[in-house]
Amino acid sequence: MKxxxxxxxxxxxxxxxxxxxxxxxxxxxxxxxxxxxTKVIYEWNNEKKFTTGKFWQTVLICMLIGGLISGFICGGx
Length: 77
Hints:
The two termini are 35 Å apart. The protein is mainly α. Helices cover 81% and strands 0% of the residues.
């Protein structure tokens, strides 16, 4: 009941913030998984190293692509 009261007080602003926050958290988790899979594939033969900077860069790129896709879907085609 507290969640419903929180959303009713400020109009639809609370719902929008919650939806954007949920999308951001889900995108972050999915991007971490994609980056981990990419690291395993990249280091498969032990010839190359996947640095921490490359890992976080991969997470950021995945989040940007996911944000573009979710914006395209939620914004209407």
